[in-house]
Amino acid sequence: MNPTLEIFSQGEEIVTGQTVDTNAAWLSQQAVACGFTVTRHTAVGDKLDDLIILLLDISQRADCCICTGGLGPTSDDLTAEAVALAFNLPLEFDGIAFEQITRFFAHRNRTMPESNRKQAMLPQGAERIDNEWGTAPGFSLQYGRCWFVFLPGVPTEMKHLFQERILAKLSSRFLLKPDQLITIKTLGLGESVIQERIKTIEIPPEVQLGFRAGTDEVQTKLLFPYNYSKTAKTALVTRFAEQLGDHVFAIDGLGELTGDLVFEIDRLMTNRRLTLAVVETVSQGLLAAKCVGSEWLLSTIYEQSTARLGHDPVTEAGAENLMVTAKAIAADLQKSSGANYVLVQLCAGDNDALNNKDKSIVIYNTLLAEDSFHQATHSIAGPIKRKQNQAALMALDLLRRYLQQKAINY
Amino acid sequence: MNPTLEIFSQGEEIVTGQTVDTNAAWLSQQAVACGFTVTRHTAVGDKLDDLIILLLDISQRADCCICTGGLGPTSDDLTAEAVALAFNLPLEFDGIAFEQITRFFAHRNRTMPESNRKQAMLPQGAERIDNEWGTAPGFSLQYGRCWFVFLPGVPTEMKHLFQERILAKLSSRFLLKPDQLITIKTLGLGESVIQERIKTIEIPPEVQLGFRAGTDEVQTKLLFPYNYSKTAKTALVTRFAEQLGDHVFAIDGLGELTGDLVFEIDRLMTNRRLTLAVVETVSQGLLAAKCVGSEWLLSTIYEQSTARLGHDPVTEAGAENLMVTAKAIAADLQKSSGANYVLVQLCAGDNDALNNKDKSIVIYNTLLAEDSFHQATHSIAGPIKRKQNQAALMALDLLRRYLQQKAINY
């Protein structure tokens, strides 16, 4: 059993939603990577009673708690006071902390406001955490079952202190055995379809399976215990990859650095010094926009009416004709652009179908690579922005599949 | 006293930090705007016991709770089960929910996996919340002191359901006295510049001033008490608007529905039945992508080398020449596209400057409208994705200023 850890964020700006609590996510990632089981995040505002109750609750249920915020000089910064009251540890003046705060202002040629003196008051017996990046020192203390660490809420200060002062203490205070996380990234399969595909795979009870569906990829996650055999791990991941087939565009956690779909395409296109020209319809520039910074993308064209691409209006054509039209547009564009590869996205479905979230449209993607055409058809539903994003992804994925297949065949 | 509300997020991906909980911030903002006092955010993972304890705790201490996540089809989606156990409300099969889930798959020509059947099981007595954007219906129920609302964790679905199905119910269930929020939306002024500009304005102590800087706009927020006089409110907002000048593209909260920059442009272009053709450089398709669903956008072209637009490569030209080149490209495109307006974005700065976050690039935007040219120059710094986004916004803002100015002169 891993030791448990909770994240506690203090601040009115967080509970009112003015600030998104990115500290909590960052600290959790760090804690999980260290070998903790993170059990809970809690955020409360600047109310002394809420803070006291929460501190007492956490002291009984977690092995460790990282708290951020509420260490500032103003009257709504109540963390130290709440700790003093909750744990009956009166605030005491810390001379070294005060000297550091004074020096912080002196270095910046500013007079220290009287209110900052408050930041040198720490709960009795707490260990000070020096903060050279700001005025608020952190502190740590054990109460009940839990080791508490209090850090400032400013993300840069918080991250710096965590990495420089806390990480080493965590390893010495706790027996940590971090799990190994494998993330299989796919496109084109929903979470439930993935579950169907992998249901015949026997997953040892000590391996945790999870899913995460984002707008740009679906992640299948396998969490292996600390000492899991590498051979058994690789064997299980391989079985997953086989079941998910060429929907898998990257596997994270096996050593090689991976990224999103565009990252994978970028690597393959750049390695082989290839170039690409694109025609977009439904994605309306988003395909090109996703590739920002990629030198291999020479051009994109979006035309509301494909008649203006020098070919028949596609809305009047059938699926067969669309495929033929796409090939002709691709061949023309390869000649005129001089790009190695050309990607053409055509669409069947009128503007009404595009705008109506209850109607679906059909996307016809054509890749002209070397001297051969590769085509794929997809039905896309949902709100227009989802259709736009899926249209961009599906066209890019046709390119990715071709590039990865080619990489295997080399 | 406002009624209290808590946010409860369920998901291993949140407690482990794989996902930043933006849902909690968004929901809190909405709740505050409605007239609730948000007291706490809590996130827990996929552990039945944790969920049950938390649900019981919340049922005793809050008037309302919005819960997100854990409604999916997979075995780690435990919300409904936890509710059933915590509140002793056995799960019951909901035929209408099942029919909706079945239809969701049928519309997409996919077979419904057996696992999705689980999503039609709702706690006894719960009111179903139909979700036409995904497979998971939400539900609501009263237990103890608290009215619970359970929504899917996918942000688009969650937001849609909250706005379409929950907001109205909140107003009918609770006596809400929301503060009156005015949001002045600007582009092109940083937060500190705005503060300088407004510093001479006297703000009554009962009015709260706040700022929120997003990637696509900066919001200056004025929060007036529930019963604040309309005349005094309008007078103060007008003073702010005067100081911020034509950087203001919309003012929210005065009655008229407003949106983002594209929303404002869309209204003006559609009203006058105008059309637009675009040439993009740094924005690389993102300008067009932002306008998805707008019938007035006829085309966009992105070319890595402007030589291919039939004009001199812009990187070798000076600012003067760039302006001339842009006009020539705009005039050509107006002829060939038949669009009423043409927007041309050119850029001075090489690839190195674009990719280097410490270097800035200069964008030259040209609008050809009716028979006249309008030009604006902007220096943009930061990471490449910021440059891309700002380039798209600045070009669109040139169009917005022209359209709004014209609307005033009519």
Task: Write up what this structure looks like.
Two copies of one chain form a homodimer. Chain A has three domains: 4-173, MoaB/Mog-like domain (Molybdenum Cofactor Biosythetic Enzyme, Chain A), CATH 3.40.980; 180-256, Alpha-Beta Plaits (2-Layer Sandwich); 262-409, CinA-like (Maf protein). The first copy, chain A, has 13 helices and 17 strands. The first copy, chain A, has helices at residues 12-15, 22-34, 48-61, 79-87, 95-107, 155-173, 191-198, 230-244, 261-271, 286-290, 319-337, 351-355, 384-409, and strands spanning 4-10, 37-44, 64-68, 91-93, 121-123, 127-129, 138-143, 146-151, 180-186, 208-213, 218-224, 248-252, 276-280, 297-303, 341-348, 361-369, 372-380. Chain A has a six-stranded mixed sheet with strand order 2-1-3-8-7-6, sandwiched between helices. In chain A, strands 14-13-15-16-17 form a five-stranded mixed sheet, sandwiched between helices. Chain A has a four-stranded antiparallel sheet with strand order 10-11-9-12. The mean pLDDT of chain A is 91. Chains A and B meet through helix 2, strand 2, helix 7, strand 10 and helix 10 of A and helix 1, helix 2, strand 2, helix 10 and strand 14 of B. Strand 14 (297-303) of chain A pairs antiparallel with strand 14 (297-303) of chain B, so a sheet runs across the interface.
Strand content of chain A: 25-35%
Oligomer: homodimer
Q: How many alpha or pi helices of chain A?
A: 13
User: Between the first and last Cα atoms of chain A, what is the distance in angstroms?
Assistant: 46 Å
The spatial strand order of the largest sheet of chain A comes to 2-1-3-8-7-6
Helix content estimate of chain A: 25-40%
Most extensive interface between two protein chains, with residue counts: A-B, 76 and 79 residues
Mean pLDDT of chain A: 91
Unreliably modeled segments of chain A: none
Shape annotation of chain A: elongated
CATH architecture name of the largest domain in chain A? 3-Layer(aba) Sandwich
Overall structural domain count of chain A: 3
Q: Care to count the β-strands of chain A?
A: 17
The CATH superfamily of the largest domain in chain A turns out to be MoaB/Mog-like domain
Largest sheet of chain A: 6 strands, mixed
| Radius of gyration of chain A, whole Å | 28 Å
Structural classification of chain A: alpha/beta
